[in-house]
Amino acid sequence: QAPAARTRIYTIRVVPLGDANKLLVSLDVTDARRVESMRSTFVANVSHELRTPLTVVRGFLEYFTDDGVVDGEQRQQFARLMSDQTARMLTLVDDLLTLSRLEAEDAPASEEDVDMANLLAQLQAEGKSLSDGRHRLDVNCLGPALRGNRKELHSAFGNLVSNAIRYTPAGGEIAIEWAMHEGVGVFSVRDSGVGVAAEHLPRLTERFYRVDRGRSRDTGGTGLGLAIVKHILLRHQASLSIDSEVGAGSTFRAAFPDWRLPAAK
Ligand code: ADP
């Protein structure tokens, strides 16, 4: 459990000064404790996330080692299930690597004027393939080029689109838009999906924070997507805001400062 935000923790050290004199030193260790607590929570989360699929794979492997216990058809079915679990572990490890890379450097390695019409077309194609015809996808590019790292922006926006699809039941609508609002560049993804209750909103971008663990896992979520989005937006001096209503849908907005929109001037 991390210490409460306003509590401070002190440790007292006794320094002997000879002749039975002692110096008492009080050290504020609040930040060190907090970092340590976050680190151990993170390690526990990663271990748990990897342990579950590994246990499934090991369970199925046992059938294969006893010769003749599984027939050809079962063999195929088990192999498919093991392959799914392995893919899940790979996605998790890839997301972890992305996060640690983002945390290690302060700014993107390179920046360019990103053609947003082209990026939105790519997001639309990827969204279509993920949705597989289950949703209506509306895409609108009304703003200028955006100065930033294309690969990182693609990853952040792609995460928002894939969340919209994964948390919206079949038949729902998803609207992706890039537009100027009062001098600010706003990328938004609106969905008509399950929505998020207000009490969860402040914690949504924490690593491994999920409103519904089961649903997130069933749809292939690692629980790291919005943490990655938050880091990428921070590196681009952009802010993230979320409007949501349970059962009605959500809108995720990323707002970029005007100096990232050189063509708008
Ligand atoms: P996950 O891999 O679990 O989707 P994310 O970090 O991308 O991880 O999202 C964290 C949580 O935020 C999700 O588990 C889900 O509960 C909630 N969430 C994210 N996007 C949406 C959305 N568009 N609609 C409803 N809930 C969402």
Automatic annotation (TrEMBL):
Keyword vocabulary terms for this entry? ATP-binding, Cell membrane, Kinase, Membrane, Nucleotide-binding, Phosphoprotein, Transferase, Transmembrane, Transmembrane helix, Transport, Two-component regulatory system
Catalyzed reaction equations? ATP + protein L-histidine = ADP + protein N-phospho-L-histidine
Q: Which GO terms describe its biological process?
A: cellular response to phosphate starvation
Give residue ranges for domain Histidine kinase. 45-260
> What's the protein called, per UniProt?
histidine kinase
Places the protein is found: Cell inner membrane
- Specify the protein's topology with respect to the membrane: Multi-pass membrane protein
Per the UniProt entry, the Enzyme Commission number(s) are 2.7.13.3
A GO molecular function held by the record: ATP binding
Q: Which domain of life is it from?
A: Bacteria
This protein's GO cellular component annotations are:
plasma membrane
